[in-house]
Automatic annotation (TrEMBL):
Function, as annotated: Catalyzes the covalent attachment of the prokaryotic ubiquitin-like protein modifier Pup to the proteasomal substrate proteins, thereby targeting them for proteasomal degradation. This tagging system is termed pupylation. The ligation reaction involves the side-chain carboxylate of the C-terminal glutamate of Pup and the side-chain amino group of a substrate lysine.
Keyword Nucleotide-binding: yes
The protein, known as: Pup--protein ligase
Family: Belongs to the Pup ligase/Pup deamidase family. Pup-conjugating enzyme subfamily.
Reactions listed under catalytic activity: ATP + [prokaryotic ubiquitin-like protein]-L-glutamate + [protein]-L-lysine = ADP + phosphate + N(6)-([prokaryotic ubiquitin-like protein]-gamma-L-glutamyl)-[protein]-L-lysine
Keyword Phosphoprotein: no
Active site per the UniProt annotation: 54 (proton acceptor)
Other comment: The reaction mechanism probably proceeds via the activation of Pup by phosphorylation of its C-terminal glutamate, which is then subject to nucleophilic attack by the substrate lysine, resulting in an isopeptide bond and the release of phosphate as a good leaving group.
Binding site for Mg(2+): 9, 52, 60
Length: 446
């Protein structure tokens, strides 16, 4: 499958400077306009994304279905803007600053996630694919980790928070790859691969690398391109070891050892060769270029070639400058503060956003693309149908219910359709549903 559907779910950490306000109270204030408009804190927006309040008072945005890296980046950034707009209103109402962090850990050690979803064909055996992908997923933190301080500098925020390799459980055992069968599409043709292990990232090139390298791995596996079949003896021990060192020896099931750097170098080289034979794609070329440069930086120890693109390297450079200035160890509270402030999503306040505005972190999207993605669904996938349907329903004040798969007009008679093909941006049946709404609710518009 060369064209693929994918989406990303981001949970945000929420806090305030004012004492005495519980996370639940903050979240309730944050979602007040959403609940007022939709009578629910679990909604689909006109840009076809899902906005909801998950357990633990973490707002979550799940982007609409995308089919290109640029589209996904614009929609992921649009998610930040949507929750930031809610936060700006809530902080006026509460008369206290509100902070939304796109990271994976709060100050008391609770972890929250950033999940990736990739469409795969039903013919692919998910368990086999998961097993083949595991060595890649365990070691990819050295290319696209967000960086962290935990007894020293670490590549990833999430590596310490997973407990199983491939499994169908989500919360109980927190696996790296989740095999729960919920395709949100025609289940006879498609499956959805749910990756739970990634860090939330701030720099757009890091997001491109994270998504693009996974897309390339999936392509190569599905197309039968020869790849090393490495099975880690203990994926969880390995993910913890990689977090501390790209060169730590990782034991394989056959008794040999390889480092994360060895494993990623082999996958990157395979991706370079694969790129030369698949149809040209500028985004994937840029992804593989950054992948290669990141591995080279790890070998040389000189991060200057990637420290405007790769989160962990940007953060490492920033923290290291402070460490030298303060002449302190990694445990210094000022460094912890920077480690957190990097993930504050507020433009002009969050460190990553400030660096980006100064040109010290490269962008992949443009402001105009993000602005458009706040309002408009991706135009090349099923998301467009959901977005158009929701926008018209809102204009007409028609009672509707939607999820990833279904569009429904609730009254006067329930009318619904299923969009089993997530690739399809056009469907006559949606026009039929819109006509039905117009017939019954047009008068309410005036
Ligand atoms: N057929 C599909 N293939 C791949 N990704 C999809 C498909 N349909 C939807 N998605 C993406 O999957 C994500 C689903 O997000 P959502 O938060 O609803 O996840 P979930 O796993 O269904 O549920 P929850 O987070 O509540 O456990 C979205 O980003 C969406 O764009
Ligand atoms: Mg979700």
């Amino acid at each position: 499958m060369l064209r693929r559907i994918f989406g990303i779910e981001t949970e945000y950490g929420l806090s305030t400077g004012r004492r005495g306000l519980s996370p639940e109270e903050l979240a309730r204030e944050l979602f007040r306009p959403v609940v007022e408009e939709y009578s629910s804190s679990n909604v689909f927006l006109p840009n076809a994304s899902r906005l909801y309040l998950d357990v633990g008072a973490h707002p979550e945005v799940a982007t609409a279905e995308c089919d290109s890296i640029s589209q996904l980046i614009a929609h992921e950034r649009a998610g930040d803007e949507i929750v930031d707009n809610l936060a700006r209103r809530a902080e006026t109402a509460l008369d206290t600053p509100l902070y939304l962090f796109k990271n994976n850990l709060d100050s008391v050690g609770n972890s929250y996630g950033c999940h990736e979803n990739y469409l795969i064909s039903r013919g692919t055996v998910l368990k086999t694919l998961g097993r083949q992908l595991l060595a890649f997923m365990v070691t990819r933190q050295i290319i696209c980790g967000a960086g962290n301080i935990d007894g020293g500098f670490r590549f990833s925020q999430r590596a310490e928070q997973v407990w199983e390799g491939v499994s169908s459980a989500t919360t109980r055992s927190r696996p790296i790859i989740n095999t729960r069968d919920e395709p949100h599409a025609d289940s006879s043709r498609y499956r959805r691969l749910h990756v739970i292990v990634g860090d939330s990232v701030m720099a757009e090139p890091t997001l491109a690398l994270k998504i693009g390298s996974a897309l390339l791995m999936l392509e190569m596996l599905e197309e039968g391109y020869p790849l090393p079949d490495w099975e880690l003896a203990d994926p969880i021990a390995a993910i913890r070891a990689v977090n501390k060192s790209a060169t730590a020896p990782l034991e394989l099931s056959d008794g040999t050892t390889l480092s994360a750097l060895d494993i990623q170098s082999a996958f990157c080289e395979a991706a370079e060769n694969w790129l030369a034979q698949r149809p040209e794609d500028d985004s994937l070329t840029a992804v593989v270029d950054l992948w290669r440069r990141t591995l080279e930086a790890l070998v040389s120890g000189d991060y200057s070639g990637i420290d405007r693109e790769v989160d962990w390297a940007i953060k490492y450079s920033l923290l290291n400058r402070y460490r030298e200035r303060l002449d302190c160890g990694w445990e210094h509270p000022k460094l912890a503060q920077i480690n957190l402030a990097y993930h504050d999503i507020r433009p002009g306040r969050g460190l990553a956003r400030v660096l980006e505005a100064k040109g010290l972190i490269r962008r992949w999207s443009t402001e105009a693309e993000v602005r458009a993605a706040v309002e408009e669904p991706p135009q090349s996938t099923r998301a467009r149908l959901r977005g158009d349907f929701l926008r018209r329903a809102r204009q007409l004040g028609a009672p509707v219910t939607v999820d990833w798969l279904r569009l429904k007009v609730n009254r006067p008679e329930p009318q619904f359709i299923e969009l089993g093909d997530p690739f399809a941006p056009c469907d006559e049946r949606v026009e039929g549903l819109i006509a039905y709404m117009e017939e019954h609710y047009e008068h309410a518009e005036q």
